[in-house]
Amino acid sequence: MKIVDIDTWNRKKLYNHFMQLKDPYFGVVIPFDVTKAYEKSRQQNINFFVKYLHDCMKAINEVENFRYRIVDNKVVDYDVIHASATIMRDDKTFGFSFINYDEDLSAFINNFKKEKARIQNSEDLYPPVNGQDCIHCSAVPWFKFSGHKEPVSGHMESVPEIAFSKAENDNGKLMMNVSVHVNHALVDGYHVGLFEEKFQFNLNK
Predict the structure, then answer these.
(1) Can you say whether residue 72 is alpha, beta or left, with left for phi > 0 and alpha for psi between -120 and 50 degrees?
(2) Contact 116, 138 (CB under 8 A)
(3) Tens of pLDDT, residue by residue, the chain (205 residues)
(4) Residue 55 sits in a domain of what CATH number?
(5) How is 11-39 classified by DSSP, letter by letter?
(6) What's the structural domain count of the chain?
(7) CB atoms within 10 A of CB 109
(8) Phi and psi dihedrals of 158, rounded to 5?
(9) Would 16 be classed as within a structural domain?
(10) What does 125-141 look like in DSSP terms, one character per residue?
């Protein structure tokens, strides 16, 4: 983790502007082609959600601005960003996870399985390890959405929030809308565009 020197940062004026707003987050919904990712998950008997979540996390970690967080009124760049995904229990409640990111898919799958087992065997809402070095994400596979709004705590937040909609066939392609909410003091549309390019690249591999 390193601290960003706000005084010499080329985003200083943008940062100061958006930090004055009550809610500095902005959100977009982006369609992704998940055809190849789904096919690979079927061929290799991999959980589809874990496959595309790993592709997403690779993209998150590759875009510097998505690693920025506001900690004690300072901007920090975390070395690694992990996944805090909602995981559903059999009774249809859910718990928040903290899935350690690993560039290796097999290792990431094992980390997911451990968190899923922990949540399935407890009533805890929050994970024992929790911090800002993550993204908050959730899958909403029951319907396709074209708009999405995240809850607002009322406190200053800086963790990106991502939601994945139901994937549906569209002219022979399996398409999935993804909602992305980010703090505009740290992330601009340009950086969301970089994330989109890298995420789609990873899905196509």
Answers:
(1) left
(2) no
(3) 999 999 999 999 999 999 999 999 999 999 999 999 999 999 999 999 999 999 999 999 999 999 999 999 999 999 999 999 999 999 999 999 999 999 999 999 999 999 999 999 999 999 998 899 999 999 999 999 999 988 888 788 999 999 999 999 999 999 999 999 999 999 999 999 999 999 999 999 9
(4) 3.30.559.10
(5) THHHHHHHHTSS--EEEEEEEEE-HHHHH
(6) 1
(7) 18
(8) -145, 5
(9) no
(10) SS-SS--SSEEEEEEET
Amino acid at 149: K
Tokens 């300072």 belong to residue:
74
Distance, in Å, from the CA atom of 174 to the CA atom of 89, rounded to the nearest integer, reads: 27
Residue 64 domain-assigned? yes
C-alpha to C-alpha distance for 83 and 97, rounded to whole angstroms: 8
Structure tokens at 133: 């070095």
Q: CA 25, CA 158: separation in Å to the nearest integer?
A: 8
- Find the domain containing 80 and state its range: 2-7+27-204
In a domain, 58, yes or no: yes
Q: Is residue 21 part of a domain?
A: no
* Predicted TM-score (pTM) of this structure: 0.96
